[in-house]
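We emphasize that the prediction below concerns an isolated chain of 488 residues; any contacts that depend on oligomerization or on bound cofactors are therefore not represented. The input was used exactly as deposited, without trimming of termini.
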Amino acid sequence: MMNPPRLPKMFTRSSLAKESKVNFLEKDIEALTLSLECEKREAAFLEEQIKLMQFELSSLPKPQQNNLNTLKASLLVQEKKLDQEKNTLNQLHYHNKQLRDKIDVYRMEKLSSKQSLNIIKNTIDKTSRIANTQTSKLLKIYESESLQKQKIGMIRSKSVSQSSKYEEKLTTLANFLKNTASKSKILYEESIYQTQGVEAITILKSMVRLFGELTHKKKKSLEAYIKHINNLINGFEEMKKATGFYKVEDIVTACIKSEEQGQAILQYFNMLSIDIDKLDEELKKNTERIFLIEGNKNQGDLNVQGCLDGVIQEYENVMNKVQIKKQEVGFYGGNIQKSLSSMLKMYRLLLTVGFKSNFHTSDGVERIDKLNEENLEVLLGSIEELVEFLIMATHSKMKKVEYLHKLSQGDKSKSQSSQRLRINELIEENDIYEEPELEEIRVPISLEEMRHRAKNIFEKRRNLIKGKLGTAETYYASTSNTALRNDL
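Result of the prediction step, given as a token string:
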């Protein structure tokens, strides 16, 4: 007999058991048919023997009475044997009929199992097609992500090239300023040379009057500037007492960190919204699949329950992910709420000192300590403007205090030539606060880590200042007289 065809693993046991029963019954039928044929042959042989014996009896002369009795007895015995053989033959026929009925029943079951197997194969083909579509979509998503990464790299390279261009422009502007200063000096010397033989008392008087007015204006501006610096110093002292940071660098780093955390959390909210949209789409697709599977179940699909269990499990996993994302959003919202209270205290202290801020908020500063989903973007924008203002104020305070310190200790006998602004050094000092480690942070950090990084930034800046002690004096050593000459 031929071997049965291979079937899927899910249905091999039941189908093989049915086929083994059918094969066993077919073997029994074949054995019974062989035995029936043997019985038929024996019956035919016995009938022929009886006919021969009857013919011999008819041909023989009439025997005696005893012989006839013996022959009759033998005939009766043979007839009884013949009847027994007929009974066994009838029993075998009946048994054969029963076996054929069972074979028909097993054949019907086999046909029904084949139909169910075809249905299952169709469902497997459908699921494989759906899986192929999902894989193609995932590949498209990966390709889009790679394209976005390439675009980001191009933008970064473009920013580097633009920075180099701007540095070249700055050098050209510095050279231009130097040339203009030398030209103005030459013109001044020519004007002095032309007025040597002329009575210049009136000109000198007018120049003295102009210089007096300029000195008076400069004196007023210096007094206002000193008041501004005193206000800054008092404000920072109060901020130190209120916040617990005893260094200006710590306050600046705290402001920078709060700004970066705000940006990182805003990006994280955007990513969460995108993930939630994707999960909603997956839920819709899963619900559609559930409806299709329920329709197939009404049509006779046997494995719908397993598919339903899988889809329900996927649905539960998706809902668990959504709950986890919501918990994370609540956690980061609490962290923002804690940092906003301290920022609000700092801003109020600055207002008491007498600052005039250049930023504005449409909803008011008092709403900063109340965070919800509606005013999230507006509040983050106002916080960003506040942090930028604090950074600018601290930076200007540090530079101008150092300038006044050098101005008071300067020597009047030094050269009167104006020193141009060292833009490259300022850029190097500002680059200390723009390290890639700070830009790569996308989650809130602890207070200890913030203090450690602020300490590292302060150490780097102090080392930079120590390395530039020779050039710093030439940068800040301009006296009041040289400043007035430069303004003229």
